[in-house]
Design brief:
Blueprint (H helix, E strand, L loop, with lengths): L1 H16 L48 E3 L19 E3 L21 H7 L6 H26 L3 E8 L6 H11 L5 H13 L15 H6 L6 E6 L3 E7 L7 H8 L4 E7 L4 H6 L4 H11 L4 E7 L10 H18 L7 E5 L24 H6 L13 E3 L2 E4 L3 E6 L4 E3 L3 E5 L3 E9 L5 E2 L1 E3 L3 E7 L11 E3 L7 E11 L10 E7 L2 E14 L18 E13 L11 E6 L2 E11 L2 H7 L1
Parallel strand pairs: 3-5, 3-6, 6-7, 7-8
Antiparallel strand pairs: 1-2, 4-5, 9-18, 10-11, 11-17, 12-16, 13-14, 13-18, 14-15, 14-17, 19-22, 19-24, 20-21, 20-23, 21-22, 23-24
Length: 586
């Protein structure tokens, strides 16, 4: 104890003689507080009260026990430099001797117990990343299995097109009746109401033409929608209007279609009216091809009419006139076009084969043909893209459209482009307004959105997932094919753009290159372009629109230009010019 007390007295004396001038060069302590080796140990005994160091000439402070770098029982050195942080224990008794003269007090090695408590080993980021990746893959596999179980049948969207009064709505209504989607009692009700209105033969069409204006005039105004199902597939019927005044509605329906049924009236005079210039048979065929529909089923309807009587000569006459035109449009007669004689009113050739009434035709019926088509490639794992074709308010904001890519589920968060509003899926309505938990690419659904007002939603807006937004632009370069133009077209030409479900006024700001039959570009920009010519042009829109390059996403990269009620040109987007500027501004 005496030796220990002498050490304390000596330390106190030396401390009292030290200068507290911080500018003195003789004493410059350095403490690296950020060093990882600094690990103070917990005191095992209550700490003794610490007295402040006395100034020059002051009285001797109360002694205390100090150990630097370990235990000590000898005198400490006059000057101690501390280049490395040391373990300091205050209030512990010293039992071992310190070195007589050292440049730095050695740091105490922490024991395994201290290391585990005070400085835990850092996690391996590579291991964590691998674990997270495996977890995400397992979750995606579970989601894929769940989706596969819920969507065992392929969904196909079929659009009925053709000239007005060709029998599109009647054919669609009869399909709903023959497949059991409309029961007999409801159809009898439609028949009574149609008879009272003096429209006896229209009752089948009333299954699709639901509003009073359409029923009174016998003309479809908006693109109707209905569902039916066979043993093999689920189908959505898109009943396009046939009148030329309602072509924009037809274009919006064609953007959602996978297969088109071109309904032709075989009745004498009606086919000629629809097929000649001014009729909608030609324009509808061009528009569905532009929309990306590869398979065209030509339904030669009204074969039971007294002016036809299932005559093969009339059937051959119609097909011989249609085939050259459809081939010029881009359809291959061998692989893309299927002709079927039928009667939409009686149902012959619709669900069952025509039989003895038409002995010269032994091919499949319309529904058999649809079931026998090849499956459409879907991008179920792609980025979410839902162009909005319709919106309304019913206890919340409800939108409808076809899922072009990706998948959705209840409570999923999405973004509405180009406004970039965040919203959430509240409900999903599938066939016949049945609520669904999920929907995948190819499904034509209604979605109830949470967190967004219906005033912010417009037709042509696109719902996307948060991680993969689509491009927004006001200007793009495109390859344009002029199909019908009375005069030459120059830069500054104005028209209406139809791309997916969006409609926007545009200007041809520049004619960049004319393209010849060998797809070679001219070096100098052409002064004008005319009918049946191809040209690369720059197009400006009045508002930002959601589009993609054709090679990246064909459904959002093909378009038509219309003017004065006619389809002037069709095209595909090659380059987005103002994407970054518009995205930053929005």
């Amino acid at each position: 104890m005496a030796n220990q007390q002498d050490n304390v007295d000596d330390v106190t004396k030396k401390t009292g003689e030290m200068s507290l001038n911080v500018g003195a060069k003789a004493f410059v302590p350095k403490f690296n507080v950020k060093a990882p080796a600094f690990a103070p140990r917990k005191a095992t005994q209550p700490a003794a009260p610490v007295a402040a160091a006395p100034a020059e000439g002051a009285g001797v402070a109360k002694p205390m026990t100090i150990s630097i770098g370990g235990s000590s029982s000898n005198n400490t050195t006059e000057a101690v430099a501390v280049p490395k942080p040391a373990t300091i224990s205050i209030g512990e008794a010293s039992t071992s001797q310190a070195p007589a003269a050292t440049d730095a007090a050695p740091a105490a090695e922490p024991t395994p117990a201290e290391s585990s408590v005070d400085s835990p080993a850092p996690a391996n980021p590579t291991t964590e990343a691998a674990t997270n990746e495996v977890a995400v893959e397992e979750e995606e596999e579970e989601d894929d299995d769940e989706l596969f179980n819920e969507h065992t049948k392929e969904h196909t969207n079929v659009i009925f097109i053709g000239h007005v009064d060709a029998g599109k709505s009647t054919l669609g209504g009869n399909i709903l009746f023959l497949t059991g989607m409309v029961d007999k009692r409801t159809m009898e009700k439609y028949e009574r109401e149609a008879k009272e209105a003096g429209r006896d033969s229209w009752y089948l069409s009333w299954a699709l033409d639901t509003n009073q204006e359409e029923r009174a005039k016998g003309k479809t105004v908006e693109c109707g929608r209905a569902f039916f199902e066979t043993d093999k597939r689920r189908y959505t019927i898109l009943d396009a209007p046939g009148h030329k005044n309602f072509v924009p509605s037809m274009v919006g329906g064609a953007a959602q279609a996978d297969v088109a049924v071109l309904v032709i009236s075989a009745r004498r005079g009606e086919f000629e009216t629809g097929f000649e210039r001014g009729g909608q048979t030609r324009e509808h065929a061009v528009l569905v091809k532009t929309a990306g529909v590869r398979t065209l089923i030509v339904a030669i309807n009204k074969m039971d009419d007294p002016t036809v009587g299932w005559d093969k000569a009339r059937y051959d006459e119609v097909t011989s006139k249609l085939t050259p035109f459809l081939k010029k449009t881009g359809y291959s007669p061998k692989t893309d076009i299927i002709y079927i004689p039928m009667s939409g009113y009686t149902g012959a050739g619709v669900k069952d084969r025509v039989g003895s009434a038409c002995s010269w035709y032994t091919g499949p019926s319309l529904l058999e043909t649809l079931d026998g088509l090849q499956s459409v490639e879907r991008k179920t794992n792609g980025p979410l893209r839902i162009p909005i074709s319709e919106k309304y308010r019913d206890m919340g904001t409800i939108v409808s459209g076809k899922i072009e890519s990706g998948r959705i589920r209840i409570n999923q968060k999405m973004m509405l482009m180009p406004e970039k509003h965040i919203c959430e899926v509240s409900n999903i309505y599938g066939a016949n307004e049945a609520e669904e938990k999920t929907a995948i690419s190819g499904d034509n659904v209604r979605i109830k959105l949470r967190g967004i007002d219906d005033g912010l939603v417009q037709n042509g807006h696109v719902l996307v997932d948060l991680k993969h937004p689509c491009h927004i632009t006001r200007e793009f370069d495109a390859l344009l094919i002029i199909r019908e133009a009375k005069n030459i077209i120059t830069s500054g030409y104005k028209s209406v753009l139809h791309v997916h479900t969006a409609t926007e006024e545009v200007i041809l700001s520049k004619l960049l290159h004319k393209v010849n039959a060998k797809n070679q570009r001219s070096r100098a920009p052409p002064p004008f372009i005319k009918q049946n010519e191809k040209c690369i042009v720059r197009i400006q829109t009045t508002k930002p629109i959601c589009v993609e390059r054709f090679e990246d996403f064909p459904q959002l990269g093909r378009f038509t230009l219309r003017d004065e009620g006619k389809t002037i040109a069709v095209g595909k987007i090659l380059k987005l010019v103002e994407t970054n500027t518009v995205n930053a501004a929005n």
